[in-house]
Write a structure and sequence with these properties.
The protein is mainly alpha-helical and 483 residues long. It has a single domain (26-249, 285-481), classed as MFS general substrate transporter like domains (Growth Hormone, Chain: A, Up-down Bundle), CATH 1.20.1250. 76% of the residues lie in helices and 1% in strands. It has 19 helices and two strands. It has helices at residues 4-8, 28-39, 44-78, 82-110, 112-130, 136-164, 170-178, 180-199, 202-220, 226-231, 235-249, 282-286, 292-323, 328-356, 358-378, 384-411, 418-447, 449-467, 478-481; strands at 14-15, 21-22. A hairpin with a 5-residue loop joins strand 1 (14-15) and strand 2 (21-22). The radius of gyration is 22 Å and the shape is globular. The chain starts with a helix and ends with a helix.
């Protein structure tokens, strides 16, 4: 039995005879503002927020993957061993683990926008610092610190975008935002293929750092999430932002929907009041009795999907160049095709996810990925071009799950703990991504690439089993999914 039943009964929301929605868990004004905001269709107001936050996510992807396209040069330049390569890849993910936990918690206190902007500043400054390094340990340190910013931006950004979208079309609109991450990965590959051989490895870090400072400035100017403001009792600020969004939607003929007061409203908190001493600790609430089931499933999904995807994505340029002896340009071009495949599959996903559901997509994608990896283990890795085709398809399919998880995870937690719940889930991404490349590094040297693909197939199969226990969130208002 899925844990939907444990939370959806009794029903969280109801309608009166006039069809107005009531959300008893919210106070009178909070429920009214939430209903107003939920009624607003996607508009230029939403589009601007998606573009600006998406620009930060694009740079997050660029900075996260840039190392993969300079490693083939650094291995020869600095005489790095496979173990050192794994350590360098893992350093970023260790930093991302710290960033995901720290920035998601800060986002519950100081807001989504300011924390996303601060994380973007950190990752951009450290990208510039990476360009100034001259040895393994200097780059290791800079990538570790940069990872804090990279890890902090994504869960906060996903939380922010999720909170801006209403139930109708949330999957499609969120996935169109989330596509910017694999587009960033794809652009890293395409730009890295040209820029690194032409201008050297430092140019890629410079390109990742300078635009980030401009994007951070734009982030600071975005409106805060009305749902977060409402959860903090900052109703006047929330109402002003909601009014701006309603005005933006007016060109579509949208008229604000009248909302009745809740039947049994709770006392309104003081505007801008600090959290009550009796307010649950979000760290503990995530794994408490109410949310434990969905949390453990989410963590399993994040660990499985990203263990496979990020290990594959970081190692493919090096495997093509050193194991299969492709020239540098061809190796980088072949590796970049994995992200092209992911973007194409995600475009299909964006327009299907609300119809077929999060759970069905995740289960099917894990199973297809497992079959493709078994094909590589059984002999597909014997030829470099069969490897390119099968590995590219496998990454595209499993990589689509990564984007679905950024949609799904903020949906299963309430506003008061949404960023923390998402940040904790993405921390398993970081752990898996730190451990995965290191294991691959040792396995390539000890057992060859076939053993690596068998391992990926097993992990994907485990992910498919976990995905069968996902709750379905499509078409449901965020306040109805979690109390």
């Amino acid at each position: 039995m899925h844990d939907t039943d444990a939370i959806s009964a009794p029903a969280l929301a109801s309608k009166d005879d006039a069809g107005f929605r009531h959300t008893p868990a919210l106070s009178g004004r909070a429920a009214a503002l939430t209903s107003r905001f939920e009624a607003i269709p996607f508009s230029p107001w939403h589009r601007r927020a998606r573009i600006v936050m998406g620009s930060a996510t694009f740079l997050d992807a660029f900075d996260a993957l840039s190392l993969a396209f300079v490693l083939p040069i650094l291995i020869r330049l600095w005489g790095m061993t496979p173990a050192q390569v794994g350590m360098l890849i893992a350093a970023s993910y260790v930093g991302q683990l710290v960033g995901a936990l720290a920035f998601s918690r800060l986002a519950e206190t100081f807001g989504r926008v300011h924390m996303a902007a601060t994380a973007t500043v950190l990752m951009s400054v450290m990208s510039l610092a990476c360009a100034l390094t001259g040895n393994f340990w200097m780059l290791f340190t800079c990538r570790l610190i940069q990872g804090v910013g990279v890890g902090g931006e994504m869960p906060v950004a996903a939380t922010y975008i999720s909170e801006l979208l209403r139930a109708k079309g949330r999957g499609r609109n969120f996935m169109l935002y989330e596509m910017i991450f694999p587009i960033g990965l794809m652009m890293t590959g395409q730009v890295g293929t040209i820029l690194v051989p032409l201008l050297g490895w430092k140019s890629l870090f410079l390109l990742g750092g300078i635009p980030g400072l401009v994007v951070a400035y734009l982030l600071y100017r975005l409106p805060e999430s009305p749902r977060w403001l409402i959860s903090k009792g900052r109703y006047d600020e929330a109402e002003k932002i909601i009014a701006d969004a309603e005005t933006s939607a007016a060109h579509k003929g949208f008229q604000p929907v009248p909302v009745s007061e809740p039947v049994a409203a709770q006392p309104e908190p003081r505007q801008g009041s600090a959290p009550s001493a009796n307010e649950p600790n979000p760290w503990l609430e995530v794994i408490g009795s109410v949310f434990r089931g969905r949390t453990l499933i989410a963590w399993s999904l994040w660990a499985s999907a990203f263990f496979v995807a990020n290990s594959l994505n970081n190692w493919m340029p090096t495997l093509y160049h050193t194991i299969y002896e492709l020239d540098l340009h061809t190796a980088l071009r072949a590796a970049s095709m994995t992200n092209v495949a992911q973007v194409a599959i995600l475009l299909v996903c964006a327009f299907c996810i609300d119809r077929i559901g999060r759970r069905a997509w995740a289960v099917a994608s894990f199973l297809i990925g497992a079959v493709l990896f078994l094909g590589l283990y059984a002999g597909g890795a014997g030829s470099v071009w069969s490897l390119v085709v099968l590995a590219t398809l496998a990454y595209g399919v499993v990589g689509s799950i990564n984007a679905v998880l950024y949609l799904y995870t903020p949906e299963i937690y309430p506003t008061r703990m949404r960023a923390v719940g998402t940040g904790l889930a993405t921390s398993w991404l970081r752990i898996a991504s730190a451990v995965g490349p290191t294991i691959v590094g040792f396995m390539v040297g000890a057992q060859g690439v076939q053993g690596v693909f068998l391992m990926f197939a097993v992990v994907a199969a485990i992910g498919a089993v976990a995905a069968t226990q996902m709750i379905e969130t499509g078409g449901r208002q965020l306040e109805d999914i979690a109390p």
